[in-house]
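User: Could you go from structure to sequence for me? I need the amino acid at each position, not a summary. Structure tokens:
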């Protein structure tokens, strides 16, 4: 057991986030900063060598090792950069491990469909063929003509005459695995926990990381590069204050859970004995959990009741100009987490041209909590209301306590005009309020921000240029870029999506090309066609034939 730096509770070292407070990297060890080398804002690699800290040098360094890192590295490799010029630091060996884990915990298994467009392919920067075409081809090879025809119709008729096509998680993971092998991901990957990022005195950046090898003391290593990319993900899961208070008081993390935590025991008990469940939140995760509970009810015949606890009723969707988002069952429905025009249409242009002060209002109007517009999910809600096992309840949670009989009591704040009960009782509570984006809870980014006084945008995240560069961090010719949710609030809205990661990668690669970065070829014309054909064949990217600055 190790100690969480945020709340001080004992935490299993293998966990991604602390189960008591939800923060990232629940424990770090005292050996993380030997000789105090991270206390300086400008490192000397010679000094590190004198302290016997191993230092490796490379040209391009991706920090995070997840989906954002993978997309950036894929662009580099397709752009002609050799794998020997790239290094990646992350906790997992595959870029989709964390994403897959979050999907599994929120009941999106490999055969379920994720909320992503057919052409948003992290493994294929051209976007063609899309996942839909690939799935059709696979079904035809298996002789399944009718399922293939249904998907073809869905792609042609979406979104007015059919639900929007989204790929199965298994197809996404298999495609990523194929591209990992094609670009040589394992040769570039360095598994470890990032503990700090610093400028060097020779115009580069140094990233220190800890390698935990079973049976050996932790080893601190450093990689230096002139071009780095930060895609470090969320600081952790979001635990409501009343959830944290209940856990601290009771020491129980099994009755009140966050949807992104492991909580399969809840569904196992419901399947064996039935029971009651309080569900908080109205996003896509709550929709999938409701579908899961409905499947268990119909398969077992047990009496399972769900109370969907929402802060307030919602009868009208958000409007922007003449556009209106659909609202039913106190939920807003749309295919993706942002309007489609925010990905590549007029809303993207409007946001890019808006001032930093105008952007929070636009993002608040276009964004908000929504769930995927799927007819089967709406049918679950309709059937649940009709059969009486599903009901909505509105109110703010005041506190959560135990009943003394293995049940949970959710106390609601008093409301003058509400005839509903002031407390709810159930076997379990599942909180679907999402992941945390607070910058101060991210140990690496918060440290970097404090060390170099990095500016924040009005949304409270790190300010980046339209090319996703952390301009304040520029160190001579050295440049630092970032992608993912921690770059939210700048010139592009859906940063936390496959398309957003690809957009950020493309903008940063274009910036590197303008700076004549080593080994990088502009991806256009016949060169692009050649690389796409190699992707189609599964052959490794061809190295660029240009000789740029070293």
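Assistant: Here is the amino acid at each position, in order:
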């Amino acid at each position: 057991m190790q100690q969480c730096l945020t709340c001080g509770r004992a935490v299993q070292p293998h966990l991604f986030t602390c189960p008591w407070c939800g923060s990232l990297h629940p424990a770090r060890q005292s050996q993380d900063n030997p000789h105090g080398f991270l206390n300086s804002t400008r490192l000397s690699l010679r000094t590190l060598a004198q302290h016997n800290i191993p230092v490796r040098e490379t040209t391009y360094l991706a920090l995070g090792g997840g989906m954002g890192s993978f997309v950036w590295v894929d662009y580099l490799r397709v752009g002609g950069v050799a794998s020997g010029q790239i290094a990646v630091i992350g906790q997992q060996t595959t870029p989709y491990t964390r994403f897959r884990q979050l999907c599994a915990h929120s009941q999106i298994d490999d055969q379920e469909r994720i909320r992503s467009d057919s052409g948003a392919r992290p493994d294929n920067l051209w976007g063609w063929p899309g996942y839909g075409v690939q799935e059709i081809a696979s079904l035809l090879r298996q002789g399944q003509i009718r399922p293939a025809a249904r998907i073809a119709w869905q792609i042609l008729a979406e979104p007015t005459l059919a639900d929007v096509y989204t790929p199965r998680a298994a197809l996404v993971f298999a495609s990523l695995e194929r591209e990992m092998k094609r670009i040589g991901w394992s040769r570039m990957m360095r598994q470890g926990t990032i503990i700090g990022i610093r400028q060097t005195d020779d115009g580069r950046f140094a990233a220190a990381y800890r390698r935990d090898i079973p049976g050996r003391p932790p080893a601190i290593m450093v990689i230096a590069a002139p071009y780095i990319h930060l895609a470090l993900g969320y600081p952790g899961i979001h635990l409501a204050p009343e959830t944290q208070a209940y856990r601290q008081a009771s020491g129980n993390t099994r009755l009140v859970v966050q949807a992104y935590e492991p909580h399969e025991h809840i569904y196992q008990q419901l399947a064996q004995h039935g029971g009651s469940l309080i569900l908080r939140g109205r996003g896509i995760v709550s929709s999938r959990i409701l579908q899961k509970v409905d499947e268990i009810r119909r398969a077992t015949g047990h009496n399972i009741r769900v109370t969907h606890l929402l802060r307030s009723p919602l009868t009208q969707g958000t409007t922007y100009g003449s556009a209106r988002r659909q609202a039913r069952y106190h939920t807003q429905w749309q295919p993706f987490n942002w309007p489609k025009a925010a990905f590549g249409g007029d809303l993207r242009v409007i946001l890019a041209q808006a001032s930093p002060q105008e952007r929070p209002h636009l993002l608040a109007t276009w964004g908000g909590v929504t769930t995927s517009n799927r007819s089967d999910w709406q049918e679950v809600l309709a059937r649940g209301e009709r059969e009486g096992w599903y009901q909505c309840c509105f109110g703010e949670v005041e506190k959560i306590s135990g009943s003394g009989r293995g049940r949970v009591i959710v106390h609601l704040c008093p409301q003058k005009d509400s005839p509903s009960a002031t407390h709810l009782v159930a076997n379990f509570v599942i909180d679907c309020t999402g992941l945390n984006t607070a910058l101060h809870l991210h140990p690496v980014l918060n440290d970097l921000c404090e060390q170099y006084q990095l500016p924040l945008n009005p949304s409270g995240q790190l300010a980046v240029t339209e090319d996703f560069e952390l301009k304040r961090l520029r160190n001579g010719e050295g440049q630092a870029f970032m992608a993912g949710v921690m770059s939210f609030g700048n010139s592009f809205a859906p940063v936390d999506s496959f398309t957003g990661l690809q957009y950020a990668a493309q903008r940063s690669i274009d910036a590197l090309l303008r700076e004549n970065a080593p080994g990088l070829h502009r991806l256009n014309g016949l060169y692009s066609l050649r690389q796409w054909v190699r992707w189609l064949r599964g052959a490794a990217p061809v190295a660029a034939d240009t000789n740029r600055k070293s």
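One structural detail worth keeping in mind: The CA atoms of residues 79 and 522 lie 6 Å apart.
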